[in-house]
């Protein structure tokens, strides 16, 4: 698996996956997401692995879905491709997953972190759902999971105005469970993963399933609608302008159509 878009290893009973596209701040393209799902499913099937640790590098967990992949995508194209199903596959992993987040966790990157069961952040972590800046909306559960984690008003500010949270703000809002200095955050997350890995795998799976059920069926209903609306957003001229403006490094000119 190493040498592609991710790095994978096992440390005792903890399976470790690193997102590894540093030149684009670990932007999540289809290849990376497919490799990530394969690695996590392999850990799921491996009885030696009892907990999974997912992380990026110090600069970025992931700065979102790879915007280059959407350059010429139409609403029907994105509907048919159903790209965000790869995020759902991560959600279906039954073993506990700890995310260690440093630097950017934006858009699809923030959604990926929120799908994990626990987020340990470095002091430099920044969380946001800035899809609105490219006239799109989150499509991998962000509108639902962020609102469930931090409450309506803060979630609305992040989703509608593009506000980003610092690590301390994310801790205060309940989005992350602990914050550590940047030199220590991976070690801290590994400590949490190892504590979990020492418990009964059977009880872990049952406990995770029960906690996740507390969000259902609202979560599934909400994510279904979110996904359809995200597909629809690809039909707007504003969405194309948002994307062009990002790569031309200029402010977008939205016309409301
Ligand atoms: N996709 C592709 N490339 C990216 C992405 C991305 N999401 N984010 C950063 N990059 C690339 C940049 O283009 C740049 O490449 P290059 O060196 O070739 O110009 C490189 O990474 C470094 O980025 P910056 O120079 O911009 O670094 P800064 O430190 O100045 O800024 C930021 C860092 C603030 C993180 C900035 O890069 C940024 O705003 N990135 C985009 C964040 C974003 O909007 N994420 C959400 C994406 S959308 C999503 O995740 C859900 C998909 C929904 C549909 C999308 C429809 C369009």
Report on this model:
By secondary structure, the chain is an alpha/beta fold. 46% of the residues lie in helices and 16% in strands. It is built from eleven helices and ten strands. The strands form two sheets. Strands 1-2-3-5-7-10 form a six-stranded mixed sheet, sandwiched between helices. The chain has a four-stranded mixed sheet with strand order 4-6-8-9. Helix 1 runs parallel beside helix 3 and helix 5 packs across helix 10. The radius of gyration is 18 Å and the shape is globular. The termini are far apart. The model has no long low-confidence stretch (mean pLDDT 96). The structure holds octanoyl-coenzyme A. Octanoyl-coenzyme A binds next to strand 6 and helix 11.
Task: Give a short overview.
With 257 residues, the protein is an alpha/beta fold. It is built from 11 helices and 10 strands.
Strand-helix topology:
Blueprint lengths: L5 E6 L2 E6 L10 H16 L5 E5 L4 E3 L12 H7 L3 H7 L5 E5 L2 E3 L1 H8 L2 E5 L3 E3 L13 H9 L1 H10 L3 E2 H7 L4 E3 L4 H13 L3 H13 L4 H16 L3 H11 L10
Parallel strand pairs: 2-3, 3-5, 4-6, 5-7, 6-8, 7-10
Antiparallel strand pairs: 1-2, 8-9
Helix pairs in contact: 1-3, 2-10, 5-6, 5-10
This protein binds octanoyl-coenzyme A.
Task: Using brief descriptors, characterize the structure shown.
alpha/beta, about 260 residues, single chain, six-stranded mixed beta sheet, 11 helices, four-stranded mixed beta sheet, 10 strands, binds octanoyl-coenzyme A
């Amino acid at each position: 698996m190493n040498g592609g878009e991710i790095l994978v290893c096992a440390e005792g009973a903890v399976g470790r996956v690193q997102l590894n596209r540093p030149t684009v701040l670990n932007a999540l393209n289809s290849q990376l997401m497919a490799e990530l799902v394969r690695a996590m499913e392999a850990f799921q099937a491996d009885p030696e692995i009892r907990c999974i640790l997912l992380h990026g590098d110090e600069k970025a967990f992931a700065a979102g879905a790879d915007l280059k992949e959407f350059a010429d995508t139409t609403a029907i194209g994105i509907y048919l491709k159903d790209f965000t199903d790869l995020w759902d596959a991560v959600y279906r992993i039954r073993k506990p997953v700890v995310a260690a987040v440093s630097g950017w966790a934006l858009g699809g990157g923030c959604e990926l972190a929120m799908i994990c069961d626990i987020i340990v952040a470095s002091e430099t972590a920044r969380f946001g759902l800035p899809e609105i800046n490219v006239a799109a909306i989150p499509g991998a559960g962000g509108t639902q999971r962020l609102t469930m984690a931090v409450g309506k008003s803060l979630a609305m500010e992040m989703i509608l105005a593009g506000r980003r949270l610092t690590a301390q703000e994310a801790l205060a809002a309940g989005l992350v469970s602990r914050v550590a200095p940047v030199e220590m955050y991976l070690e801290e997350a590994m400590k949490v993963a190892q504590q979990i890995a020492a418990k009964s795998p059977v009880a872990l799976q049952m406990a995770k399933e029960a906690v996740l059920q507390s969000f259902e069926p609202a979560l599934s209903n909400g994510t279904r609608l979110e996904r359809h609306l995200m597909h629809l957003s690809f039909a707007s001229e504003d969405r194309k302008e948002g994307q062009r403006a990002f790569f031309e490094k200029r402010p977008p000119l939205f016309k409301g159509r």
